[in-house]
Amino acid sequence: MNGEAATDGVASSTVARQRWRLLSRAVASYGQGKSVSVKELNSLTTVRQFCQFGLFDITEAAGARSADEFVEQTWQHVDHPEIRLQLYLRQRVPATACLTPAALGDGNNNSKTTNSSIIGSNQSGNGNNTGNICVWPSEEVLAHYVIAQAKAGELIPKEFDGDSGIRVCELGGGLTCLAGLAAGAALRPRLSHLLLTDGDQLACENAARCLTANRQILTGGEDQTSRIEARVAQLAWEDADFDKHNYGRFHLVLCADCLFFRESHRALIRTLDKLLMLPTPAATGSNKHRGGLALICAPSRGRGVEDFARLAEAAGFDVGVSDNYDPRVSQTAAAEQSASFVPDLHLPLMLRLTRR
Ligand SMILES: C[S@@+](CC[C@H](N)C(=O)[O-])C[C@H]1O[C@@H](n2cnc3c(N)ncnc32)[C@H](O)[C@@H]1O
Fold first, then answer.
1. Which residues 6+ apart lie within 8 Å of 306 measured at CB?
2. Whole-model pTM?
3. pLDDT at residue 220 above 90?
4. Ligand 1 proximity of 136 Cβ (cutoff 6 Å)
5. Exposure check for the chain: N or C terminus, fewer CB within 10 A?
6. Closest to 257 (Cα-Cα) out of 318, 192, 170
7. Which of 216-220, 244-248, 339-343, 345-349 is predicted with the least confidence, judged by mean pLDDT?
8. What is the pLDDT of residue 98?
9. How far is the CA of 128 from the centre of ligand 1 (A)?
10. Coiled-coil ranges per the record (predicted)?
């Protein structure tokens, strides 16, 4: 593993423990069928008290609150304001979308979280409701990172310059697939394929709505719809036979805040391995390349990232892990003095995976 990761035991601080207990009591007190407003949840939780890194200016359109409990927002990137994405987000979080006390672990960050211990791990695929709650900070950070890298000409290596179009996929993108949309918008006009996915059907339905709202920015308003293939698909990592025509196809695969499902690590790695473009054999000389790149953004949460990185290395990937990959993210983290900011839980690490 290259680079350093912040994996110390800050999360075991008393404050963190108290907040986990508070959240656990609060969630337990909400009866079945009730809902929790995002504001209430924000005011109670460690996980959500540090909600955003402020990398997008967020505005709500007048009259944007619709009867179906979703609100329409514009997310405008702070450094590249030409990237303005329309998102639909929940006004209220269904109680079934909250983490159960059992899933919260013991407050010492020994999380017992598994797919099956998340309430609402629904019957419609292998995803779960955690992606239907909000845009989690790792997704915001990954969206920002791909925009910054693309604008600096560093997202897609030069060796792919000759390719006819860039193909991007997001895994576990939740209800907006913001990072995939951001990459698509920032890579225009080189983008040719954008595949946004999640294992959860509800998340996919909303992501499809977001994709439709952003067609214009992906195509540049020109009549390029026939040139760009952009779609949402329900993709569970455990599904060994998904869309075989997508195998080995993607220059870039993105994934945010999906590493705390430890029992799914191997399936996620197999999925990355299938989707990423294969390296060209060294024999082809000057055109050889190392294959596609996966960018995975997630907080450490105990040893979650380390464990995932070790498995990925064993599966033949080079893995770089960094906690200092972007000046804005580092500044915000350094300036954040509040007790509710626990780096182990809230500072997203950036993992870069390429085939060895
Ligand atoms: C914490 S949410 C993160 C959502 C989004 N990336 C974000 O950060 O806002 C984790 C997402 O991973 C998806 N997921 C979990 N396990 C999965 C699996 N085995 N296959 C596909 N998706 C999965 C869930 O459905 C959920 O949307």
1. 1, 5, 7, 300, 321
2. 0.81
3. no
4. yes
5. C
6. 170
7. 339-343
8. 36
9. 7
10. none
